[in-house]
Amino acid sequence: MKHFFKFVLILLPWRLKRFCLIRFFGFNLHPSSRIGLSWVYPSQLMMEEGSKIGHFNVAIHLDCIIMKRKSSIGRSNWITGFSSKTPSRHFQHQPERISMLTMHEGAAITKHHHIDCTSPVTIGKFTTIAGYYSQLLTHSIDIIESRQDCRPITIGDYCFVGTNVVVLGGSQLPDYSVLGAKSLLNKSFEIPYALYAGQPAIYVKAIDKEAKYFTRNEAFVY
Asked: How many domains does the chain have?
């Protein structure tokens, strides 16, 4: 019955759907936020002014999703996690772990991506997870200890993440950076205003600090 109710909510007009999501699920949804025909049921959901989730997304088994002002999730994305409230032997060695996605102001996830938020995934302001079929994977198996393990992923402010990349747990992309298409990011970098690319990704070259993508104050790119 609970799943049937969730399904019915998806089909409701937004104003009524928003009322039910606040009333029955305790979500914090700004009047100007919007969710399309998507199965989005984390334990907690906060959507600020102008934030939006498009059609055909799935976001499940998460402790929390936070979407800051004018951040957006496009279409047909699979956003999963492993809730810290799940009774399981997995991740017992990480008692402080939280399964969450945080999107800062103007951040955007386009479409057909897989975001694994077993550990926190943070996407900085005015950053774009662009193109199609990228994977951000916070968890894997620790071969030495023979157990599930997870580490957070941090994508900085004003970054551009190219199509079909893989980003692994423990990785960090600095502010004002570009991650080239089909790259594998498997560690943390620190130098901003740079292009990183390759398998695994390496520092390739500096990018002009006056690049208009890095200086814009609107989320939408024309």
From this structure: 1
User: Measured between alpha carbons, how far is 130 from 46 in angstroms, rounded to an integer?
Assistant: 23
Per the DSSP assignment, residues forming a β-bridge with 198 are: 201
CA-to-CA separations, 124 to 13, 157, 176, 185, in angstroms, rounded: 31, 4, 10, 16
Residues 6+ apart with CB under 8 A from 136: 113, 114, 115, 116, 121, 129, 153, 167
Amino acid 3: pLDDT:
83
For residue 54, being part of any structural domain is answered with yes
Burial profile 129-148: b = 16 or more Cβ within 10 angstroms, e = fewer:
bbbeebebbbbeeeeeeeeb
Question: pLDDT digits over 16-72, tens only?
Answer: 999 999 999 999 999 999 999 999 999 999 999 999 999 999 999 999 999 999 999
Q: Residue 183 is part of a domain; what is its CATH number?
A: 2.160.10.10
Instruction: Let me know how long the chain is.
Output: 222
Task: Write out residues in the chain with pLDDT < 50, as ranges.
Answer: none
Task: Yes or no: say if 109 and 126 are a contact pair by the CB < 8 Å rule.
Answer: no
Mean per-residue pLDDT over the chain, rounded: 96
Give the model's pLDDT for residue 205.
98
pTM as predicted: 0.95
Cis, peptide link before residue 200, omega less than 30° from 0? yes
C-alpha span between 75 and 174 (Å, rounded): 26
Residue at 21 is within a domain: no
Range of the domain at 138: 28-84+93-215
